[in-house]
């Protein structure tokens, strides 16, 4: 098993100053960068989905507004003997209610 040497960086403002970062510091900084990248990716995905939904909604609204109004929806279907509508039997069910009248 090999061990990684600590990262060494030279500060350009102080040429004689050499700093070393421990493995934990490097992992902590890289994990922060990974979390930031994930957050940015999620924001981009939400933005794309929002734009797609807005575009879809706009297209559907324009389609509904430009669609001619059908007169079939406003007029009732014909009820003659030659009508093609589904015939439903008309039945009236009367349920008697007991009415108690008080004698005075």
Automatic annotation (TrEMBL):
Descriptive protein name: Noncompact Myelin-associated protein isoform X2
Q: Matching PANTHER family, A to Z?
A: NONCOMPACT MYELIN-ASSOCIATED PROTEIN
Where is the stretch described as Disordered? 63-91
Molecular-function GO terms, alphabetical = structural constituent of myelin sheath
Instruction: List, as start-end ranges, the regions of compositional bias called Polar residues.
Output: 81-91
InterPro entries given for it? NCMAP
For this protein, the parts annotated as crossing the membrane are 33-53
GO BP field = peripheral nervous system myelin formation; regulation of myelination
Q: Which organism is it from?
A: Alligator sinensis
Keywords linked to the UniProt accession: Membrane, Transmembrane, Transmembrane helix
Q: Name one GO cellular component term.
A: Schmidt-Lanterman incisure
